[in-house]
Structure formats: C-alpha cells, structure tokens
C-alpha cells in the first residue's frame, strides 16, 4: 500500500547513496504447492479460527488506533518526549474513524486492519497517533493524519521522525539547543512547524539537514541531549507505548537487535489485564504473573515472543495474527507446522519451528557481538530509569535499575548467552556449521 515506505533504519538513504531507485522481482512460474487440496482446506479452517477471535473484528473495523485509547487510559502513551504519559481523547479510534474512507487489507489478508483516510493517504496507525500526535503535543486529529500522510509520501519512518522532532522540541525548550542552530523557535503543538521540518528533513534543507542525522546528533547537541533521547542502540523507539509501566515491553526494546523496535517481541497480551492465568501459563510457561509491572518471569514472556515472531516473520505471515501478539487465538506453532507441510511437504515438529526462531535471534546476536554490541548496549533511555511517570494509573512507575539488571541476566540465561550478552562459542560453532 501507499504507506509501506519501509522507511525505518534508513534503507532509503542506503539505496540513495548507491543510486539505487528500486528492486523489482518478477516472474511467471508461480510457486508449486506440495499438497494443494490440503492447503485449501487448511486455509479455510484457519480463516474460521482467526475470525472467531474477538480481536479480529475489532482490528477489521478500527485497526491499530484501538491501542491508542487503551494506552492513553492507562497513562502509557509517550507524550511530549515522555515528559508526560497521557494525551488528548481527540486521537481515540472513534474520532479517527470519522476520517476513514474505507478499511483495506494487505494482499490476500482477511483482517483488513488498514485504513484509507479521507485526506488522501493511508493510516494512521497507532504509532502515528502517538508519535506525530501526543509526542509532538498535537491534538487536532486532521493535523495528525496530515503529518502521517506527509511522512508516508516522503518515505520517512513515522516513529523515528516523531521521536526525533519531540526530542529536539524539548532540547530547545530546555535551552540545550538554540535559534542559532535551528534558525527558528521550536515548540510542541505547532503543526505547521512539524510539517515544515518533515519536508526539510527529506530535502536536507535548513535545520532539517541536521535533523536528518537523527540520533547521531548527540555529538552535535552535546552529552546532556542523550539524557532525554528516547532511543536504544541509536534507533528511536518505534512503539508509542511508554514502557516504564510494562516491564516486558521494556526488556523487549532493550534487547531487540536493531534498537528500540517493538515488533521484535511486543507481548501485547501484557496489556490485557484480565487474561486468565492458565492461558498465560500455557503460552509462556509457569511463573509469569499477570501484573505487567512485575519484573518476575518477564524474561520468559520476551523469550517466547522473540522466538515465535522470528518464526512467523520467516514464513512471511503478518505478526498481527501471530499467537501471543494481539490474541492467544491466532497462528501458533501447530498452525505453522500444518501450513509448512501443505505448502512444501516438509514435516516439521513444533519444536523445530521454535528452534528456527531461536536461530534467527542468535544469528542476529552473533552479528551484533561481532560489531561490539553487548550487555552495555541492551539498556533503556535514561528517562525511563530516572523519571517516574507523572499521570494516571501508571503514575510513579519507572524502571528500577537493579531489577532491570537481574531481569536482563535471567533473559540472557534463558537464551543461552553469557552474562555479557554474547552468544556462547559452542552455539556460534553450531550455527556457523549449519550456515
Ligand atoms: S496483513 Fe496484517 S497489517 Fe495487513 S491487513 Fe492483514 S492484519 Fe493488517
């Protein structure tokens, strides 16, 4: 769709530097299916199974904006560079819906969770509402949708753009950067300013030329600027959710390979406070309390999610319908096993597929280890440790350094990494032989 710009992590910049406009794959032969009849039957069965989940119809009618209200009610929406944690109800799904032309879906998907908006673009997703709305102090729904459309047209990552703009607005407010550098006054809540800066970033004009360097600007803005930067491993946080409250989310973004990526392991079920404990036990194993503020057992939540999301990514299936992402009633290893068999004829066991997910995570980690990334980098923005959340139910919550440290150690142990976050030699050897 028009909003699939794949802007995150600067792929467009890499392509630009190589003078590569696009990569096109074409062919006429199709893909041979090992068991076509069984495949059709399984897909029909799976469709019914997925549509029986309550979340499917909610996703199909309002899409991810439903998460804005959930997070905002809790007081867990990143607001004004995480100085605040709650924002306006004007960005709730029912208001956004009045701007929706129609719901659409990715190729062959039965969920249809995406919107075509009346302002000429696609979206907004929850990330846009949070990061181009609450995080920039903008309340007007139409303005947020317009910023969303501008980012998509320009191929800019909404999460990174919203995070970097919010960061620089606060830096300006605090006097860490000034007009001499920016050329004009920066402030939250100024839609025209935000829009102008997005264009300037894409054209590398004016202050946008500096903003385009993203988190690298810590060197230019000075060391104190890093204290209020919401990024991990140099990558701005993608999730508009304030992770100070939900500890599994915090561990997930701290350990994600690329940086503060929520899609690596987001255990959205942590938000569903009324999920029965026996369901939780079945998914993550025993010893994971339902309380999202508890550090206990949350290494298991992230470990499970890392593995299954890596497996479903490898199959090219959308994470939104993966077991444990939005619902316990979606595609799990048993469904994956069936689909793989129908398509390829291969006979995998559930644990083989889980092992594939584990291998993906370990190989990514081997790459990171080779580049010097280790425990010191699996951390969180300083603000998440030091500044308690100021509003609503989540008021007073922050990340405790000691608790986080032992959670990280338990996670490494579960992954089989050493206490410095390095993949152990035997595993490296095993995977290298396999490769
Ligand atoms: S493939 Fe995923 S993102 Fe696309 S419409 Fe379906 S559920 Fe939504």
How would you sum up this structure, described in words?
This protein is mainly α and about 425 residues long. It folds into two domains: about 10-15 and about 60-235, Aldehyde Ferredoxin Oxidoreductase Protein, subunit A, domain 2 (Orthogonal Bundle), CATH 1.10.569; about 245-380 and about 400-435, Orthogonal Bundle (Aldehyde Ferredoxin Oxidoreductase Protein, subunit A, domain 3). It is about 50% helix and about 5% strand. The protein is built from 20 helices and four strands. Strands 1-2 form a two-stranded antiparallel ribbon. It starts with 10 loop residues before the first helix and ends with a helix. The model has no long low-confidence stretch (mean pLDDT about 95). It binds iron/sulfur cluster. Iron/sulfur cluster binds near residues 106, 109, 320 and 321.
The number of distinct structural domains comes to 2
Spell out the CATH superfamily of the largest domain. Answer: Aldehyde Ferredoxin Oxidoreductase Protein, subunit A, domain 2
For the biggest β-sheet, the strand order reads 1-2
What structural class is derived from the secondary structure elements? Answer: mainly alpha
Overall, the morphology is: globular
- How much of the sequence lies in strands comes to under 5%
Number of strands: 4
Mean pLDDT: 95
Radius of gyration over alpha carbons?
22 Å
Bound molecules: iron/sulfur cluster
Spell the H/E element sequence. HHHHHEEHHHHHHHEEHHHHHHHH
CATH class of the largest domain: Mainly Alpha
